[in-house]
Amino acid sequence: MSETILVTGATGQLGQRVVHHLLETQGVAPESLILLSRDPGKLSDLSARGVQARIGDFDDAASLGQAFDGADRILIISTDAVGEPGKRLRQHLAAVSAAATAGAHIAYTSMLAPEPGNPVLFAPDHYGTEQAIKETGRPYTIFRNGWYQENLLMTLPQAIKMGTLYTSAGEGRTSHIARKDLARAIATSLASGSTESITYQLTGPEALTTTDVAALAGEVAGKQIPVVNLTDEQLLEGIKAAGVPEGFARLLVSFDANARTGSNSLVTDDVATLSGQQPLPLRAFLESSKAALIA
After folding, report:
1. Does the predicted TM-score (pTM) go above 0.85?
2. What phi, psi does 12 have (nearest 5°)?
């Protein structure tokens, strides 16, 4: 009998892609797949195929025991609760505890280099979750995901309009990766049945500076994008002046500070090793996203 795989956050941007690859690429039987969502109605199409859709709320720890029941392998996709300090880690710890009680192999989507000292404001959430998973004594798979290529679509279109890209990342490099490449690799691992405990570093194929990224985006958009390097404090004030709330502005600045440290510069073959496919280069991603870049 095949393992039962449970995916949390199944209606999210990464979760949807993982589910797609489990079913369509890995050939996991629908009846062997459990999907968690706060609104299972959004999974009605998959339920009609035989997938089990369950209510899952990380803010209701008591409910997770029933939600995780019967799962052999559980993928905990990190939540998006980054606006309230401590909330995200509480949510993750509740899920880890329930997964351990279920006796499952625990998989988790983390970030590159979340150890103490990483300036990203939510890095402690990931590190704390990783440590909690290891302390359960259960077999685990930790996916340390590189920075999404899609994140660039939050900043590059505005930079193209303004004609300037402001950063405090300096010459720090980032190995951006597309969600679809992460999802394919994660799904392959989940479907493998592996019982070893392992941490994967899932990165893009190249590590580029902000200047490199701006040059690529400019070529795609047909417009030069000069890069202006600032201090963290100057960047923070500029973002706040643009109307961004201070809490979120500080989070954005922490991303640039992290890139400057080199924590995002790692390049590995883990994605290709798992999925059998090379991850998408950034130029190809930007070309496929041209409409969003120049919108």
Report:
1. yes
2. -80, 175
